[in-house]
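Review form for a predicted model. The reviewer records the input and the model, then writes brief findings.
Reviewer: anonymous (R2)
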Amino acid sequence: MFEYDPLPSDEKLIERAADAVARARRAGADAAEATAGASCSASLNVRLGALEDVDHAEGGDLSLRLFIGQRSATLSTANINPAALDALVARAMAMARLSLENPWAGLAPQELLAVGALPDLDLTDTARPTPEALRDLACEAEDSARAVAGVTNSEGGSASFSQSAHAMVTSHGFARCTRGTAFSMSASVIAGAGSDMQRDYDWHSARHFSDLEGAGQLGRGAGKRAVARLNPESLASGAMPILFDPRVSGSLLGHLISAMAGPAIAKGRSFLGDYAGAKLFPDAITLWDDPHRVRGLRSHATDGEGLPTQASALVDRGRLAPWLCDVASARQLGRNPTGHASGGGGVSTGNLSLAPGTASRDTLFHDVKNGVLVTELIGQGVDLLTGDYSRGASGWRVIDGQIAGPVSGFTIAGNLLPMFADLRAANDVNRRYSTHVPTLRTDSMMVAGD
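Model under review:
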């Protein structure tokens, strides 16, 4: 089918980015930075045991950001020949001259850039699975799911591999290249028939092939979950305790991170704008950002502006840490950049870990007379300007501390501030994904059902 071609060397990618920066400077830019990337990926999808799709992609790209005084422009291209780069620079210069002045924009201060040796995060594997191996994984995952009694159909199984490399060069001397590999697998099946059909799935990703979960185990999990969802009941509307299964509880942390983003704070687009350093969670809640986790899915030694990253508590015993700032938002807010720039004016974190609680999941359920355990969320429904939260959901009814049966077709709603204020965590941390998080409970929400 296909073979994996080696990606360009670190030196070659740095040379490409440096060439773009040099062209921008010769054209009159006061400062510039460029990122040169290369990637190669392969994925296979099967359905009902037959090969359905095979994708193989290779490519390279280059992104250039340049500054003329306090004006800037950013452009990207997949064409890296000299004539195309000159045309890219010319367009970027023209765009920058037409853009509005931004007193906060600019390259990261040179004294803040990462220097010296960076931590070895072991993000690149030498394994290269053959197309046949990927097909076998996808088939095993789907076959194992379909073998579960009650499974009647399949949406398919998949397996994929990708490798990537990105070099960043700035006009004030920063030059680094990072690499990574990723392997993933999934299965999605349907249980039941007619009007009572239920779908569920499972997936797993890892930096190293040897860390990928067994295909049979993953498939059986997907099949069992689909069957368990058969014959769901409806929920009556009202206030009740909501428990978030580890499959979905990490989404609450995602909303928190978005609201803590310096660019959102600086633009007045976050409900947390008046809560800098405030105590919003119970004392037991501590949230760590660890960009240096070995083989972590979101590990990175430098951020998108060349600053070194480090582990930090984003919530420390209930209290918010400083905002997550790139250089521009830090300047606007009068703060220091935190090493969370994602590039392009945004911020991102590394691998998140919520400290486990002292109680078991069963104990967290124990005093719930009438509640719901959410295992799937539908839609976005979160207003980061107000903190209002409303999302479709399905899961399990909880009666007198016990799971009583599947429920679906309801909406959970509340506001993130009171939800955060009474949040409780069990000790069942799920460590399969980039966000390590346990079952979470809040008693500050409403259910809209029948």
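Findings: The mean pLDDT is 95.
Further findings: The first helix runs from residue 10 to 26.
Recommendation: see findings above.
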